[in-house]
Amino acid sequence: MKRRRTALFAVTALLAAAFTALPAPRAGADEVEQVRNGTFDTTTEPWWTTSNVTAGLFGGQLCADVPGGTTNRWDATVGQNDITLVKGESYKFAFKASGSPEGHVVRAIVGLQVSPYDTWYEVSPQLSASGDGYSYTFTSPVDTTQAQVAFQAGGAADAWRLCLDDVSLLGGVPPEVYQPDTGPRVRVNQVAYLPAGPKNATLVTGTTTQLPWQLRNAAGTTVAQGWTVPRGTDVSSGQNVQSIDFGRYRGRGQGFTLVADGETSRPFDIGTDAYEQLRLDSLKYYYTQRSGIEIRDALRPGYGRPAGHVGVAPNQGDTNVPCRPGECDYSLDVSGGWYDAGDHGKYVVNGGISTWELLSTYERSRSARTGHPARLADGTLALPESGNKVPDVLDEARWELEFLLRMQVPDGHPLAGMAHSKIHDAQWTGLPLLPSDDPQKRELHAPTTEATLNLAATAAQAARLYRPYDPAFAAKALTAARRAWTAALAHPALHPDPDDGTGGGAYPDDNATDEFYWAAAELYLTTGEKQFADHVLDSPLHKADIFGALGFDWGRTAAAGRLDLATVPNTLPGRDEVRRSVTKAADGYLATMAAQPYGMPYAPPGNLYDWGSNAQILNNAHVIATAYDLTGAAKYRDGAVQSMDYLLGRNALNISYVTGYGEVHSHNQHSRWYAHELDPRLPAPPKGTLAGGANSSIQDPYAQSRLHGCTGQFCYIDDIQSWSTNETAVNWNAALAWMASFVADQG
User: Fold this and answer.
1) What distance in Å separates the CA atoms of residue 478 and residue 532, rounded to the nearest whole number?
2) At 404, is the secondary structure helix, strand, or coil?
3) Which helix (H) or strand (E) holds 729?
4) Per the confidence metrics, is the pTM higher than 0.70?
5) How far apart are CA 191 and CA 285, in angstroms?
6) For residues 261 and 211, is the Cβ–Cβ distance under 8 A?
7) 547/588 Cα distance (integer angstroms)
8) How far apart are CA 83 and CA 65, in angstroms?
9) C-alpha pair distances (Å), 239 with each of 336, 603, 644, 654
10) Looking at 89, 395, 719, 727, which residue is catalytic?
């Protein structure tokens, strides 16, 4: 199931053009210029500006005086409309630009001049006073006669001058072939291997016979050696590869490298410290995703920002949000919670699976043979709530739980007890945009059965975990869970509208059987009541194989119930069979891993990597790890630990998908406020943030222009514009947090 987005990368409406012009001719086989008067020899026509910008000719250039004190890039713009683009045509976008004083950033875009203002290409160079030339090539994903070239210069505190010359959009140029820099052909986990854990690497080579390898320490001394194992062509990447197993080496240290076929890998450690830190960093991510609270710079240096969506202008706030027209006649306070991904939406469905996995991270620490609850104790995550004698991970999860409870329809209204599916902007906003600067109207969307059962499941789980720390909150959560369950039984097929994707993701789902199973399981585990046990036992999913190749996620939640039934103490009849179903699934994932030269428990049908594939790999590893917790069998421990290798660098692109981990790592994930790539004043995503990963459908225009025809693992690009391969999301980081905690515990 695809994640949810259709048209995310939009920009806020620009003011009407100051001049009109005839459409440019369509680009043909020859190179054809689409921009009119890009040299500004005698006039500025047909270029336009927003009303707050004064522009004119100065020395054969268009120079624009940009006011200070604006909020967004598009608040001060110079542009040209009515440009024709041809789908599949390659274009060279070039211009000269200078800024005075220097150091300002201009956002240069090619996009749609009318709503929804899609952006098909953009760059944000930092300008010098003397001026520089810029040139880029991209492929248009659309046919249109309503494209625009625009230079967005707003957002600066002080006034400045932007000068432009030689602006060109040349069609019919040869397409630029995107060739990612994959570095050395020896692919390793760039972060760390456990001293007593599996240690595997992949060698990309044209050689089909075995080759010698050496493991070298930081001083360059060979400490282990052996021979590669030829694996032939790897379907997931299209590469000829060989495997390297250096697991017999049990030493510790930093700066190891692996040498084979004349190539030296990127460095890595052998030890446990990195996973202890990743456990914490992956959980710390959630504080900076919080809505409705100031993010304190003292707690997250470099990430401090005002509270978002609390009704401070231009923000309209989440404390009194109405439904979309015709969907209800009341407003709710739905403040708080986590921003779901790179936008400002908040979703009960995705929030549910995310909260479950964070709570499960804590629950596992209390019950598993290798669990260490002290490592998730009060004070470990540096939160505003730290010091309240409650484990920090529970404090963080509660921020989302309180929001989920607010999304429940109050008594006295139609559909009382159901949960609204989501709350987000009425229209898409552009990047970059701090939550506190979001000017859009906020709207509640219709209740759904799926959202209601997400609330029932997570609130029931919360009731048993918070009881020792806050009995009143635990009781409140259980009451809400019961109300949600009853409401869902009365309305079992109110599914989300698959076309409800304006301003936020649709999260389409037309079958709530899995959510019913999950919610019944959590309610049974918390209450022990027969009514919930009966629903679990009667569900068609209870004895079905619910662990598929793609793994569980927000749209496939039955596995959450099955995993908890297997691990949380209970007296459900046939529980041994439940536990065996988990180990059987884990055996299947181990077989998949053994067949993959890159060693991941993921082989999607047709080699079509799904949206958020990195999280699906982690969730399959979650099943393997649970099998270890159930059995103590070393094969499951090793398989779960090895699954992290792919995420941390042992992949076709030779990149760690976790910000701040590995010599080369993702750091331009799609986000409106972790937007350093577009605005140097803003931070990159915080350390411990997981990128979505390879996605064969490459739904966004930026990825389409560079990754067309990509094979499996190569369907990824680390750019903020690629929302289909490089977004950040709360459910993906939850999968990372659970697995990072498991691996840290194995040290």
Assistant:
1) 13
2) helix
3) none
4) yes
5) 19
6) yes
7) 9
8) 25
9) 47, 16, 21, 13
10) 727
Q: Which residues have CB under 8 Å from 231's CB, separation 6+? A: 241, 242, 243, 597
Element housing 326 (H / E): none
In this structure, the number of other CB atoms found within 10 A of the CB of residue 361 comes to 23
Q: Which two tokens stand for residue 459?
A: 């609130």
- The single residue listed with the structure tokens 């569980």 is 552
Q: What was the pLDDT predicted at 29?
A: 45
Phi, psi dihedral angles at 393 (to 5 degrees) = -65, -30
CA distances from 101 to 104, 161, 162, 467 (A): 7, 7, 9, 59
pLDDT of residue 123: 84
Q: Rounded distance, CA 652 to CA 203, Å? A: 10
pLDDT digits (tens, 9 = 90+) for 183-215: 999 999 999 999 999 999 999 999 999 999 999
User: Does residue 30 carry a pLDDT above 80?
Assistant: no
Task: Work out the average pLDDT over 602-631.
Answer: 98
Which string of b and e fits 558-596 if b means at least 16 CB within 10 Å?
bbbbbbbbbbbebebeeeeebbebbbebbebbbebbeeb
Q: Which structure tokens are listed for 692?
A: 């979505």
Tell me how far apart the alpha carbons of residues 726 and 690 are, in angstroms, rounded to a whole number: 9
**CA–CA separation, 172 vs 575, rounded Å?**
65
Query: Out of 700, 718, 719, 745, which one is annotated catalytic?
Result: 718
- Going by pLDDT thresholds of 50, 70 and 90, the confidence category of residue 16 is very low
Q: What are the contacts of 302-307 at 24+ separation with CB within 8 A?
A: 302/683, 303/683, 303/686, 305/434, 305/435, 305/436, 305/673, 306/434, 306/436, 307/435, 307/436
Helix (H, G, I), strand (E, B) or coil at 178: coil
Q: Backbone dihedral region of 295: left (phi > 0), alpha (psi from -120 to 50 degrees) or beta?
A: beta
Q: Active site includes 727?
A: yes
* Dist CA 303 CA 147 (whole Å): 35
DSSP one-letter code for 414: T
DSSP label at 103? T
Do you find a cis peptide bond into 198, omega within 30 degrees of 0?
no
Q: Which residues are CB-contacts of 525 (< 8 A; sequence separation ≥ 6)? A: 460, 461, 464, 564, 565, 568, 570
At residue 170, what is the residue type?
L
First to last CA, the chain: 35
Identity of the amino acid at 318: D
R_g of the chain computed on alpha carbons: 27
C-beta atoms surrounding 141 within 10 Å: 21
Q: Are 319 and 399 in contact (CB under 8 A)?
A: no
Residue of 343, 392, 437, 629 marked active site: 343
Q: Is 577 a catalytic residue?
A: no
Cα–Cα distances in angstroms (integers) from residue 298 to residues 287, 382, 399, 723, in the given order? 12, 9, 19, 30
Distance, in Å, from the CA atom of 423 to the CA atom of 4, rounded to the nearest integer, reads: 15
Helix (H) or strand (E) holding 586: helix 575-595
Is the distance from CB of 101 to CB of 159 less than 8 angstroms?
no
Angle 664-3-311 from CA coordinates, rounded to 5°: 90
The mean pLDDT value for 350-364 works out to 98
- pLDDT at residue 430 in the model: 82
Catalytic residue among 445, 450, 670, 719: 670
Q: Name 576's Cβ contacts closer than 8 Å, sequence gap at least 6.
A: none
Tell which residue, 430, 445, 480, 483, has the closest CA to residue 459: 480
Least confident range of 86-100, 219-233, 629-643: 86-100
| 3 pLDDT more than 70 | no
Ramachandran region, residue 107 (left: φ > 0; alpha: ψ -120 to 50; beta: rest): beta
